[in-house]
Amino acid sequence: MGPIVGLLIKQLPRLIPVVESLVRKPPPLPEDARLDAVEQSVDRAFERLVEFERRLRRMTLAVFLAVLIAVAALIAAFVR
To answer: Could you tell me if 37 and 29 are in contact, meaning their C-beta atoms sit under 8 angstroms apart?
Structure first.
Protein backbone atom coordinates (compact mmCIF):
# COMPACT_ATOMS: atom_id res chain seq x y z
CA MET A 1 0.00 0.00 0.00
CA GLY A 2 1.15 3.45 -0.78
CA PRO A 3 1.31 6.20 1.81
CA ILE A 4 -1.72 7.95 0.35
CA VAL A 5 -3.88 4.82 0.56
CA GLY A 6 -2.72 4.21 4.14
CA LEU A 7 -3.58 7.77 5.11
CA LEU A 8 -6.97 7.46 3.40
CA ILE A 9 -7.73 4.29 5.35
CA LYS A 10 -6.72 5.99 8.62
CA GLN A 11 -8.94 9.00 7.88
CA LEU A 12 -11.89 6.95 6.58
CA PRO A 13 -13.93 7.17 9.82
CA ARG A 14 -13.67 10.96 9.67
CA LEU A 15 -14.36 11.18 5.94
CA ILE A 16 -17.52 9.05 5.83
CA PRO A 17 -19.80 11.57 7.63
CA VAL A 18 -18.47 14.39 5.45
CA VAL A 19 -19.18 12.46 2.26
CA GLU A 20 -22.63 11.46 3.50
CA SER A 21 -23.52 15.07 4.28
CA LEU A 22 -22.36 16.15 0.83
CA VAL A 23 -24.39 13.44 -0.88
CA ARG A 24 -27.54 14.02 1.17
CA LYS A 25 -29.40 17.10 0.03
CA PRO A 26 -31.96 18.91 2.15
CA PRO A 27 -35.55 18.70 0.92
CA PRO A 28 -36.42 21.53 -1.46
CA LEU A 29 -38.11 24.50 0.15
CA PRO A 30 -41.38 25.85 -1.16
CA GLU A 31 -41.22 29.18 -2.97
CA ASP A 32 -42.53 31.17 0.03
CA ALA A 33 -39.89 29.70 2.32
CA ARG A 34 -37.17 30.60 -0.16
CA LEU A 35 -38.46 34.15 -0.37
CA ASP A 36 -38.58 34.42 3.42
CA ALA A 37 -35.03 33.12 3.67
CA VAL A 38 -33.84 35.70 1.14
CA GLU A 39 -35.67 38.49 2.95
CA GLN A 40 -34.14 37.48 6.28
CA SER A 41 -30.72 37.37 4.69
CA VAL A 42 -31.18 40.85 3.22
CA ASP A 43 -32.44 42.17 6.57
CA ARG A 44 -29.41 40.73 8.38
CA ALA A 45 -27.06 42.20 5.79
CA PHE A 46 -28.72 45.62 6.15
CA GLU A 47 -28.47 45.47 9.95
CA ARG A 48 -24.78 44.60 9.72
CA LEU A 49 -24.26 47.47 7.27
CA VAL A 50 -25.94 49.95 9.63
CA GLU A 51 -23.81 48.71 12.54
CA PHE A 52 -20.67 48.97 10.41
CA GLU A 53 -21.60 52.53 9.44
CA ARG A 54 -22.01 53.49 13.12
CA ARG A 55 -18.69 51.91 14.01
CA LEU A 56 -17.00 53.70 11.11
CA ARG A 57 -18.36 57.05 12.27
CA ARG A 58 -17.08 56.44 15.81
CA MET A 59 -13.67 55.41 14.54
CA THR A 60 -13.49 58.46 12.27
CA LEU A 61 -14.30 60.70 15.22
CA ALA A 62 -11.69 58.96 17.37
CA VAL A 63 -9.01 59.37 14.69
CA PHE A 64 -9.93 63.04 14.25
CA LEU A 65 -9.63 63.65 17.99
CA ALA A 66 -6.31 61.78 18.16
CA VAL A 67 -4.89 63.88 15.31
CA LEU A 68 -6.17 67.05 16.96
CA ILE A 69 -4.47 66.13 20.25
CA ALA A 70 -1.26 65.23 18.41
CA VAL A 71 -1.23 68.59 16.62
CA ALA A 72 -1.87 70.40 19.90
CA ALA A 73 0.99 68.49 21.55
CA LEU A 74 3.28 69.30 18.62
CA ILE A 75 2.42 73.00 18.82
CA ALA A 76 2.98 72.95 22.58
CA ALA A 77 6.38 71.30 22.08
CA PHE A 78 7.45 73.92 19.52
CA VAL A 79 6.28 76.84 21.67
CA ARG A 80 8.43 75.79 24.61
So the answer is: yes
